[in-house]
Amino acid sequence: MDASKILLLAVVLTACAVVFQVIGLASPYWIFADLPSSKIYSGLWKTCLDVEGVDSACTDLKNATDWLEAVRAMSILGFLALLVSAVATALKLFIMNEQKPILIVAIVTAFAGAAFILISIAVYAAKMSELNTGDIYKFHFAFAFCILGMLAGLGGGVLMLIEMMKG
What's the whole-model pTM score? Predict the structure, then answer.
């Protein structure tokens, strides 16, 4: 098999982007507040309260606001687009070597996934800065993983674009 190293790196980057996005979507650690006697963590689906001397408790975020629903939707769309991109890139690399349209699909979905994730993190950050007037909340690791997923998706898309222009 004569696999292009650029395309191999692109499939690794898009696969990493999918993993990063899954971690970001599933973890309730988009923001946190470290208060004197407690800690509050919140994500897209759950919020958790950890009080000293008491077990921590997590609750589902029910009746989410419109902006949070939009952030959830964009994050999920970003994940799905990156997943399609990773699969399409792997297909191009290992099975459909001569098929140029599959590479085009991989490129478009990689950039679309990155754009969806960018929208989700931008809306979330803007709304949190509006709500966080006293600088109580700080962004946490799940938020950063979504940013990493977006950047890895962009990197994979750029590498696929280079591969397409090369061939």
Answer: 0.89
